C-alpha cells in the first residue's frame, strides 16, 4: 500500500485512512489503493466492516485536475477510464463500509463517499456535486448513486446548481445517516462499524449482497456514459474557465463553447 493510504485493524473493523491532507485529492493510484484495501478486507475472515476515513481539512475534494493536463485528449480519456475501472471495484466489495466525513466531500470526493453504505458527518462537513460549475459532467457513478440515495429531484437540484450543502442539510435529505461533532466523527464511525461487526459475518455479506444487487453493474454502465460526456466537455473553453474560476474562487464566465 502507498504511504497515502493507512490501514489499521480495530477488532473486527478495518480502517482505511486517506492521508493526502489537507484536501485529499485522488488520482488513479489512490483509488486503486482503496480498492485493493477493500479487496484485502473482503479476503480477511476477521474483518466484518470497514471505516473509510481521511486525514486533514477535507474528506476528499475530488480529482486532481492538475495531473495530466498536458496530455492528449485520448490520453486523458484513457487515464480517466482506468480510474473509473478502479472506482467500479469499490462497489463490488462485500463488507459494509462506513464513511467518516469530517470536512468537504466535493465532486468525485462525493462519489467516493457514496461508495460507502453509511456516512457519519459533522456540521462543518460540506457536500457538492460541483461538476456543472466546472463546465463538466458528473462522474464516479454519481448519476446512479446520488439519485438512489436522495431521490431524482433532489439529486438534479444538486447537479444543476452545483451548490454546496451543509452537514445539517445533508442529514435532512438523507445524504448522511448521523451528525456528530467534528471531534466525534472517527469514534462515531468506529462505533457504527463495531455494531455492524457484532452481527453474524456470513449473514452480513449475504444481506448486503441482496440489498446492493446489480449496483456495481449499474455504476459500470453509468461511468461509461459519464466518461463519454466528460471527454468532450474536457476539451471545451467552458471547462478551462470552470477550473480557472474555481481556483480563483469566482463565478465562471461561461460562453457555451
CATH homologous superfamily identity: 2-enoyl-CoA Hydratase, Chain A, domain 1
Which strand order does the major sheet show?
Answer: 1-2-3-4-6-9
Structural class: alpha/beta
Let me know the number of strands.
9
Q: In terms of per-residue confidence, which ranges show pLDDT below 50 for 5 or more consecutive residues?
A: none
- Determine and state the CATH class: Alpha Beta
Order of helices and strands: EEHEHEEHEEHHEHEHHHH
Helix % is 40-55%
From the spread of the alpha carbons, the general shape counts as globular
State the domain count: 1
Report mean pLDDT, rounded to a whole number.
95
Q: What name does CATH use for the topology?
A: 2-enoyl-CoA Hydratase, Chain A, domain 1
Radius of gyration: 18 Å
SS element count, helices: 10
Task: Identify the CATH architecture.
Answer: Alpha-Beta Complex
| Strand content range | 5-15%
Report the end-to-end length measured between terminal Cα atoms: 42 Å
**Largest beta-sheet details:** 6 strands, mixed
Describe this structure in words.
- Helix 2 runs antiparallel to helix 9.
- The chain has one domain (about 5-185): Alpha-Beta Complex (2-enoyl-CoA Hydratase, Chain A, domain 1), CATH 3.90.226.10.
- It has helices at about 30-45, 75-90, 110-115, 140-150, 150-160, 165-170, 185-195, 200-210, 215-235, 235-245; strands spanning about 5-10, 15-20, 50-55, 95-100, 105, 120, 125-130, 165, 180.
- By secondary structure, the protein is of the alpha/beta class.
